[in-house]
Amino acid sequence: MPRQQPSPRQAEILQQIDHFLRLHGRPPTRGDLAQALGLRNRQGIDQHLRALAGKGLIALEPGVARGIRLLQTEHAAPAKTFSVNAMTPRLLPLYGRVAAGLPTLADSNVEDELGVDAAMFRPQADFLLRVHGESMRDADIQDRDILAVHRTVEARNGQIVVARLGDEATVKYYQRRGEQLRLEPANAAFQPIIVDLRTQNCVIEGVVVGLIRNNWPHARR
């Protein structure tokens, strides 16, 4: 039997769940969804979630605040599931403010090493980067947050990347059209960075696969 289609509001909730998973590496709470959708009453969120579960688009774990699991559909990415028994702590380097004249991932830029569960992110995180500034504020990336980054030199349009322009490292949305690259902020107070790849060099250091809020005691959540 084919799955039922979600209503427009339910599709919006699916997209918010997917966005939260990609950004934070964990499911949202009902409160997270209500805040993202600008709702004061969480009861409506519960009703929509039950409807989505009834349509086979998500699975709900009773009594668990973050017990929401996306099932693979055309409306959202494949589910991210985390098994507590499979979690294996791994020390990842945390890079801080990049020193002038040095690559982003130079050993001298390592601020610390943090134990992160390997199962938290897909694809897996290879290093961590501390955010400086508010240019990605509207993507829920705040000053002093720690980003989990998968090391790669390639990116797809719409992904959040760590890019290096000369001595400067920046975190922005990646948008490429031909030989023109736009590094887009998520804050209207900032201007996009335009790169002509025929004459300018831009190195992609990695793709952001999750976020560790600065005031969390541990990466595991």
Task: Tell me what the structure shows.
The chain is an alpha+beta fold and 221 residues long. It folds into 2 domains: 63 residues, Arc Repressor Mutant, subunit A (Orthogonal Bundle); 128 residues, Umud Fragment, subunit A (Ribbon). Helix content is 16%, strand content 30%. Helix 1 crosses helix 3. The longest helix is centred in the N-terminal third of the chain and has 17 residues.
Key attributes of the depicted protein:
221 residues, alpha+beta, Arc Repressor Mutant, subunit A, Umud Fragment, subunit A, 2 domains, two-stranded antiparallel ribbon, 16% helix
The SSE order reads HHHEEEEEEEEEEE
Helix content: 10-25%
Number of strands: 11
Oligomer: single chain
Rg measurement, Å: 19 Å
Brief rundown of the structure:
With 221 residues, the protein is an alpha+beta fold. It contains 3 helices and 11 strands.
Helix and strand topology:
Elements: H1 8-24, H2 30-36, H3 43-54, E1 58-60, E2 68-70, E3 89-95, E4 110-117, E5 127-130, E6 146-151, E7 160-165, E8 168-177, E9 180-184, E10 193-196, E11 203-212
Parallel strand pairs: 3-5
Antiparallel strand pairs: 1-2, 3-4, 5-6, 6-11, 7-8, 7-11, 8-9, 9-10
Helix pairs in contact: 1-3
